[in-house]
Structure formats: C-alpha cells, structure tokens
Amino acid sequence: MQIKSLEIFMMVVKLGSFSEAAKVLHTVQSNVTSHIKKLETELMVELLHRQNPIQPTRAGIQLYSYAEKMLDLQQELLDTFCNTQLATRCPLEIGSMETTAAVRLPTLFRDLQQSTPDFPFSLSTAPSRQLIDWVKASKLDCAFVANHRPIEGMFNFHIWTEKLVLISSKKAPQQLSKQDLLQKKFIAFKQGCTYRKAIDSFLSSYHLPAANIIEMGSLDGIVSCVSLDVGLAILPMSYVQQSHFAHQVQIHDIELAEEMNTYLIADQDKSKWATNMHHFFEHLQKMAYSNANIEAVCG
Fold first, then answer.
1. Phi, psi of 70 (to 5 degrees)
2. The pTM is what?
3. What is the CATH number of domain 3-81?
4. 22, 120, 130, 208: which could join 91 in a potential S-S bond, CB 3.0 to 4.6 Å?
5. Mean pLDDT over all residues of the chain?
6. How far apart are the C-alpha atoms of 134 and 146, rounded to whole Å?
7. Which residues pair with 259 in a beta bridge?
8. What pLDDT shows up at residue 123?
9. CA 261 to CA 131: how far, in whole Å?
C-alpha cells in the first residue's frame, strides 16, 4: 500500500470527484482511478459509490479514518527527522555514572523540563566503562562518563570538571600516613568505574600497592561505610558535600589525583543520532554557554 494511494483516495472523498482530485493533485484522471482500484483490490472492498458526487462506502469511511492517522504519522516522522519537533514516541535513552546522576542531572533535567515540558527521556546508571560499551552498541543515545581526556572514537562534549577528594571517618587522623593507607581498605563501585581507577593512581603516587577494594553498588552505602570507619573512598567533592553523611566524614585533598572531566559521549557520526539527541545536545550547549558566562563574570 502506497502513501500516495491514500492521499489520492482522501482527495477524491473530499472533492467528490475523480476529475477534480486529478486537477488538484496535478495528475491525470486515469492515474487517480488506478490508485483507487489498487486499494480496493488490496483491501478486497469497494471504497466508493460511483455517483455524482462520489461518496465513500462504509468501508471507505473506515479506510479514511485510518488514512488520516497514517498520513499524520508520516508527517510527524518527517518533522522529527528534520529536527523540527520532538519525537514524543521515542524517549531519549541517557546513561550516567551514579555520582553525576545524583549531583548534576537533577538540575539539568529540571531545566530541560521547564524549557521543553514534553521532552521524553529515560535514565540508566552504570560505571563509565559499561556506559561507553552501551553507547557504542546503540543501547543508549548518549551517556555522561568520567575520564581525564575525551573517549577515542566517539563524540565528546566536556560539560563538567569534578574535584576528587579522599574521605575517611572522623576517627581517622587528619593527616593520613602511608601506614594508615596500607592498613585501610577502600570502598568503591565495581570494575569499570573511573573513580575506582583514581584509587590506584592515588596509592601509586605514594608508591603503595593496589588497594584491597570493597565493592558496593550505592553511593550512600559507600559514604555511610566510610563514616563508620569501614574504609576509605575517593569521590567527587560535589557529591560528598551534598551527601546525607557529609558531616560524619573527613575530607582530605588529593595532591596528585587532581581533577576529573565529565563528558557527554555519543556516536561520533551525528547522522546516526536520533532526533531527540539533537534537541538534547542543543540544550546542553546552551547550558554550558550560560555557565561559562556566569563563571567569567564571577571570576
């Protein structure tokens, strides 16, 4: 069944005439008749009462209703793929690290919903390594991941920079010695988390062996265990400061672990992006530009 056939059928019904429909559609009457016959053959029904003016049969009225929906859907498809409107039927699949989801994304999503109330999206959280794999496999439209530098072979948009800090319980010394670090376990997410790699870099700077890691799947769980002196952790300052357990832990600056960038990653070829990804990236660009201006003024 051709969209063109449905367009011709609807025009015949609206005008009540094969010849008038042919004039409006800039074609010959025989072409109009041919399309109507093809529809009737395919659907095995009679669509029109051949009288003057032409009237649709009950089957024709039924088809007209479907044809309207199909042509409206076609127009919606064309509009969305030309990036003129949101694809409300296809939510944007966003991935994020737990820390970014907890600290950065609530404000981002609030602003997005205020500017575009109907914007459809969903969020999945996982370690950076897994998020990268999911974006590469087209299981996600985009993801927020942490890394010192852009992810090779992917589209990267630097959006935040996080200061990493070491946290301990209030019982621990204010100045942690090598011996303290050797005796303590570290608490972190499972393999693939970029912040977990920062633990090895931190210990290496003290010429210490890799840490004994306790794996946990919850940020609050990690910070709570640190507060109870179960172990140490390295996390972004932005998360620690807003944590429910912030007043129960000590924050230690890390001299050599410096800062960690957060990138929005997506397929390197923008022609493969879904429509809503273009809208989302435009919003992020505006947000980043606004934040840059605020920082410039404050600076």
1. -65, -40
2. 0.74
3. 1.10.10.10
4. 120
5. 88
6. 15
7. 163
8. 97
9. 15
